[in-house]
Amino acid sequence: MAVAASLVFLTPTAALLALVGAVPLGALALAARRERRAREALRLPGPPARRPLRPAGVAAVAALLGLAASQPVLRSTTTLRVRTDAQAFFVLDVSRSMLAARSPGGRTRIARARDDAIRLRQALLDVPSGVATLTDRVLPSLFPDADPAVFDATVRQAIRIDEPPASSSAIVATSLGALGALGTQNFFPPTVRHRVAIVLTDGESAPFDPRATARALAERPGLTPIFVRIGSPAEQVFGPGGQPERGYHPDPAAAQTLAGLAQQAHGAAFSEGELGAAARAARAALGRGPTAAAGLATSTRALGPLAALAALLPLAALLADALRSAAGAARARVGRRRNPVPWRPSRRLRPRGAER
Question: Which fold has domain 85-289?
Answer without folding.
Answer: Rossmann fold (3.40.50)
